[in-house]
Amino acid sequence: MSEITRDTLMAYADGALSPAERAEVDAYMADRPDAAGEVALMQRQANGIRTLYGPISAEPVPPRLSVEKLLQTQQKRRGRAWMRLAAAVIFIGLGLGSGWLLRGQMDVPNIADRLIADAVSAHTVYVSENRHAVEVGGADSEHLSSWLSNRLQTSLAMPDLSASGLTFLGGRLLPAPEVPGGRAAQLMYEDASGARLTLYVTPSPGPDTPTYELANLGLDTALFWADAVISCTITAPYPADKLQEIARTVFTQLNPATPDYET
């Protein structure tokens, strides 16, 4: 392999390299922590996408949309020249119409799954940062709490997770188009080994939101919880039982208006 580029790293993350090529990339990353971190980020994102959206991609194509069926329909309309334009118009109309009708038939991820995907995406982007991991540092937690509470229009505390061995690094404001107000807060914590945990907090998405979901995303686990006031997704490279214990501490502190956490 003459040169290792970002495309090479993507192929490595996708498992598309030969054993010899993988060995070269392993040697390359051993001296380049930034490259190793980028590959880990690619793998986490790919695992998250496969976990959340894999069932949809595995669904069979509806018979009415098969290539053979569409070709047969088109060939039947080629008998006379004056029919061709009409056939094209009908074909386009049917295509748009069937696409619209399929909206209700597809297994669209629920709001909890979409918020988990947003939380995991934000987690993988910012936990690998050093100087810019957070927008406001943990030393200024009073200002951070006031700022994020105003933006999310709720009372938002900064949970103390020191009993779980986690130090508060700070937080930031993020866009959240899935929820009313369009804003989310991300709070970040770090344990003694350097592993990081994030909280992705939004206003309540609405009355039909699932109250609890747990997702295994490769190296990370994500736990989603919601009530009538807020939703929160906790993401960390921890097993589910450890994340659930931390969640009990988080939800008793995060918002004074929320009830006790229950799974």
Report the biggest beta sheet as strand number plus sense, adding barrel if it closes.
7 strands, antiparallel
Please report the total strand number as a whole number. Answer: 7
Q: State the fourth-level CATH superfamily of the largest domain.
A: MucB/RseB, C-terminal domain
**Beta-sheet strand percentage?**
15-25%
Rg from Cα: 24 Å
**Low-pLDDT sequence parts:** 79-106
Question: Your description of this structure?
Answer:
The protein is α+β, with helices and mostly antiparallel strands and 263 residues long. The protein folds into 3 domains: 6-57, no CATH class; 63-102; 111-253, MucB/RseB, C-terminal domain (Phosphorylase Kinase, domain 1). Helix content is 45%, strand content 19%. The chain is built from 8 helices and 7 strands; from the N terminus they run ααααααβαββββββα. It has helices at residues 6-13, 19-30, 33-57, 67-76, 81-102, 111-126, 141-152, 240-253; strands at residues 136-137, 166-175, 183-191, 196-203, 212-217, 220-226, 230-236. The protein has a 7-stranded antiparallel β-sheet with strand order 1-2-3-4-7-6-5, with helices on both faces. A hairpin with a 2-residue loop joins strand 5 (212-217) and strand 6. Helix 1 (6-13) crosses helix 3 and helix 3 runs antiparallel to helix 6 (111-126). It is globular, with a radius of gyration of 24 Å. The N and C termini lie far apart (51 Å). Residues 79-106 have low confidence and may be disordered.
